[in-house]
Each structure stands twice: as C-alpha cells, then as structure tokens.
C-alpha cells in the first residue's frame, strides 16, 4: 500500500516537460486535419467552378452549332431561291453540251426520238455544233433567238437603218403614207389599240435603237455576254424590243407594198407574201399575222424571211424534224442581197427555237 502511494506521488511530481511530445503530435494532427479539410473544400469549389464553366462552354458551343446549322439552312434556301428566280427569269440559258441535251430530251425508242438523236449527232459531228443555248418557249422565242445573237455578237445596224431615224418611223407611216390603220396594232398579249399606239411604238423602237447602238459599240465579247444576261432577264424590256422588231417588219412590208404599187421590182419573198389572201396588203398582214405574234403564235416561215430581210441578216435554221431531207437546213432569206451576217437557229418543230453554238 505504501509502495503504491509512493509511485503515485512520484508520477504526480514529474516535470511538465514530459507532456510536450504528445501535445506537439496533437497539434500536428490538428493542422493536418485542418489543411486537409481546407484543401478538400477548395477542391470542391474549384471542381464546381470548372464543372460550371465546362457546362456553360458546352451550352454556348451547342447554341452556336444550332445557330450555324440554322443560318446554313436559311442561306442555302435563299441561294436556291435566288438561283431558281434567276433561272426562271433568264430567257436565254447558258451553253450546255449538245449531245447531253439530246440524251436528256430524247430518251425514248420511238421512231421520232431516234430521228431526233440522229439529227443532233449530225449537228455535233459534221456541222461542228458542240453546245446549245436553250431559249424560253413562248411566242417570242424566234425573235428572242435572233436578237440575242445580234446583241451578243455586236452586229452593226442594217444599212437602211443607218440612213433613217427609225424612232420616227411610226409617225412616218401615219403622216407620210396615211396608214391610220396602224392604230389597230396589238402589242402581243396586251390587247391595246388607240391613238397612243404611236407613242408606245416610238418608245419601243427608241429602246431597240439605244440597246443596239450600245451593244454594237462594245468590243469585248465577255462584256457583251454579261450585258445580254442582264437584258434577257428583264421580261418587260424584252417585250418592248420584240414589239419593235415586229414594227420594223411591218414597216418593211409597207415600204415594199408601196414600191409594188408603183411597178417597181420587189424581192420574190414579198410577192409570195402578197399573194396570200390573209396578207394581201400591210393591213391584212398586221391583223391576221403580226398582231398574234407574242400572243397566240410565233413567227411562220414567211415571217422569218421578212425578219431576215428587215434586219439584213441571213438566218440559217436547222430543222431537226426534217433530218435526211433537203429541208433539213434552210436560210431566210434564201438569197441575201449582200454579204449579210449569218445567224443560226435550230428547231425541233418549226414553232420553238434554240441557239446552236459552234
């Protein structure tokens, strides 16, 4: 018992320095725990921030991706719309390979389809026509095909147009030759007659003169082509030009008719014209034939003769449906009075025309 109390009193009298190592270990443990907790908290904060930033970045990327796809679809739609609109308005299309066009248009095995394919092969291999320009199918297409080539090639005015102011021709017919029936002139699908017909015709002829002068003065082929693409996509201007051509034809018929009445020698094609009951004089020619052009019908063969004569060009037409006959290749007029420029057309039915490219 005494021994126990002695040991107890000895332990109670131990110096305080004996407890320091244990206290230091407790402090180290505490600081380690606090540091670990601080790092853990900091990591959770950083991890949360990084996760939030990544999520935000992913959302932004997803938004821009959807926006890009949406804008891409809208841009594609607008490009397609503009291309369709431009193509629809362009009345003379770009060049395409002749045989490719033939293969697309004439796929059948009917006798007529085989004949057309042989005719196109003839043009490609023997006539050296490699491409074709498709022309809008309407009742102006013959006039369009001829005028497009005149402008795109920069051909000069006919000699008789250089000697006269063609803008004054409508009034000349009325006041000098007493053709008051000109008031019944019809502007294609526009059923218009009246005293103001002279003003409308004057504007049409003035536009033709202005455009022809401009194109004939341009020496650069590519620039003329670009201007043709612009002009022949404006339906309103086109109609005015074609009506001017119709009037030029009517003026020539009237002039030759007056010559015939004075017993002068006239070209044979006009004698043929005036022998028809429906075109025995300029008035009947206008009422029965010319007024319908652009509205219910296009140019007939006799009209093609008059057009070539009036514009002083030799119009060569490949009539594909007449392949293997002497009428496969015809010229309007057959015998030009001078060395007139030659313009080529091709037709599959004598109603609609396209432009061959050599």
Structure description:
The protein is α+β, with helices and mostly antiparallel strands and 358 residues long. β5 and β6 (353-357) form a beta hairpin. Helices cover 59% and strands 9% of the residues. The chain has a 6-stranded mixed beta sheet with strand order 1-2-6-5-3-4. It contains 13 helices and 6 strands. α5 (141-153) runs antiparallel to α9 (221-231) and α8 packs across α10. It is elongated and about 145 Å long. Mean pLDDT is 87; it is low at 14-19. The protein has 2 domains: 56-89; 92-357, no CATH class.
Number of alpha- plus pi-helical segments: 13
Please, how many domains?
2
Number of strands: 6
- Could you spell the SSE succession in H and E letters? HHEHHEHHHHHHHHHEEEE
Oligomer: single chain
Low-pLDDT ranges: 14-19
Structural class: alpha+beta
Distance between the termini: 137 Å
Mind sketching the topology for me?
Blueprint lengths: L1 H11 L7 H70 L2 E6 H8 L5 H15 L5 E5 L5 H13 L5 H5 L5 H7 L21 H20 L4 H11 L3 H27 L6 H8 L6 H7 L12 H11 L2 E6 L9 E4 L9 E6 L5 E5 L1
Parallel strand pairs: 3-5
Antiparallel strand pairs: 1-2, 2-6, 3-4, 5-6
Helix pairs in contact: 3-4, 5-8, 5-9, 8-10, 10-13
